[in-house]
Amino acid sequence: MRSRRIELAGAAALGAAQTWAYDHGAWWPLPLVTLALLVWRLDAARPARAAALAWAYGVGWLCAGVWWLYLSMHDYGDIPAPLAMLAVFALAAFLSLYLAAAGAAYARWRCGSAFDALLFAALWLLAELARGVIFTGFPWITSGYSQIDSPLALLAPWIGVYGIGALLAGAAVALRRFDWRAAAVVAAIVAAAALAPRDFTRSTGAISVALLQTNVKQDEKFAAEHLPAELAWTERALTEARADLVVGPETVVPLLPDQLDEFAPGYWSAIQRRYAGPGRAALIGIPLGSFEAGYTNSVVGLSAGAPYRYDKSHLVPFGEFVPTGFHWFTRAMNIPLGDFNRGVANPPSFAFDGQLVAPNICYEDLFGEELARRFVDPARAPTMFANLSNLAWFGNTSVIRQHLKISRMRTLEFERAMLRATNTGATAVIDHRGHVTALLPPFTRAVLQGRVEGRSGTTPYAWWCSRAGLWPLLVAALAVVAAAVFRNRRAAVARP
């Protein structure tokens, strides 16, 4: 019994250790090694034990990777520390059940041949798809993000982050077994991506940008005594910025327009006048709505053209909408405007100076399959993305570096630049190759000046994902699993 507990603790330690790669790009081989060690133990386990080992790996992975959720609940949500820690563990434990099922299935249907690499890749893919989609999805630190600086990233425009994670899992089996055939297949796929054409898109010109980083503490963001100074800095930054496009972070203006008129008369109209003329535009995060109609977490686009509004569609459970039966939990959290209305699923982009800028708010850029919907019609496809975020809820933690990697993956999948305007970081310009071309130090109040190139055209990933979502990956994984089941049953029948 003691040896089994030690084995489970070891699996959890492996899961926790590999999260280092999500913070530091040079450590991208680490998840491959830890996964290979996990497969080593799975190869010697029966299904029940394999499920426990895979579950422990997932719990260690998620607890180490998203522990910063504790800060939002305890430091800013007034949840007692033990309950906040329990909530993080409970989330990790629940989401790791998908990996537990994958571990059990692998132990049940593995056959000891090179096919096991394909089977484990398919099961790993199914587990990650389940975590990324079910119950609105929580695909943070999906395994593919750890490979943003590895050769596997070459496959992003073809198969996306989930496909990369599946190849990583298959490569782990090849490493554990020293199976040269499986390893050769993975190497051939990467080599083919390296030799294939990389320019699926073409330039639509470049514009100058100014990205605001306000550096407002979360417990001061809505406090009346701090609002005058916050609003004054934001107004100066918005009106004095010298760039074609200025972008302010999520809720950079934390009050409704009607509240602004009462709190600071003329504030909003002054900003609107600044962008009423040609040649300048702004995207500003602001809540919109009313008590009667409901509220939205929104982006307002200001320019000489028609008024523009983007409402966040993929809302954060408990932070932005309350699941049925959980209002008691939200009442315990100190979150203003905690139950928002959803925006439309496939909104238009902000048109300015020959570019189509597609806003997304906070963790919406985790869901590449949802951003892909904007590429169905090439004439309406965005030429660049703009992510407006506020990560002050999570303090000075790894969440900032993790979110930057997520945005970089989106730029590779779609070959579109990403503008990141955030409250505390990472405020950055990322080009269509995933390179960070301009970056502000986190937790500083400043304006980042940069230049960004728009792109038109469609990557293979954008083409198939915009039309079929994640279904092609799901169907392919299920086909592999079905083949393994059939193979297993046929072998059982053949045995005397």
Could you characterize the architecture of this molecule?
Strand 10 (428-430) and strand 11 form a beta hairpin. The two termini are 35 Å apart. The chain has helices spanning 2-17, 20-23, 29-42, 47-65, 69-74, 81-95, 97-109, 115-133, 156-177, 180-195, 227-240, 257-263, 267-274, 327-332, 368-371, 399-414, 460-468, 471-494; strands at residues 201-213, 245-247, 281-290, 294-302, 308-311, 350-352, 355-361, 384-389, 417-422, 428-430, 436-439, 446-457. The chain folds into 2 domains: 2-197 and 470-494, no CATH class; 201-458, 4-Layer Sandwich (Nitrilase/N-carbamoyl-D-aminoacid amidohydrolase). Helix 1 packs across helix 4 (47-65), helix 4 (47-65) packs across helix 6 (81-95) and helix 9 runs antiparallel to helix 10 (180-195). The longest helix has 24 residues, at 471-494. It is built from 18 helices and 12 strands. The protein has a 6-stranded mixed β-sheet. It has a 6-stranded mixed β-sheet with strand order 6-7-8-9-10-11, covered by helices on one side. With 496 residues, the protein is of the alpha/beta class.
Task: Outline the fold blueprint.
Layout: H1 2-17, H2 20-23, H3 29-42, H4 47-65, H5 69-74, H6 81-95, H7 97-109, H8 115-133, H9 156-177, H10 180-195, E1 201-213, H11 227-240, E2 245-247, H12 257-263, H13 267-274, E3 281-290, E4 294-302, E5 308-311, H14 327-332, E6 350-352, E7 355-361, H15 368-371, E8 384-389, H16 399-414, E9 417-422, E10 428-430, E11 436-439, E12 446-457, H17 460-468, H18 471-494
Parallel strand pairs: 1-2, 2-3, 7-8, 8-9
Antiparallel strand pairs: 1-12, 3-4, 4-5, 6-7, 9-10, 10-11
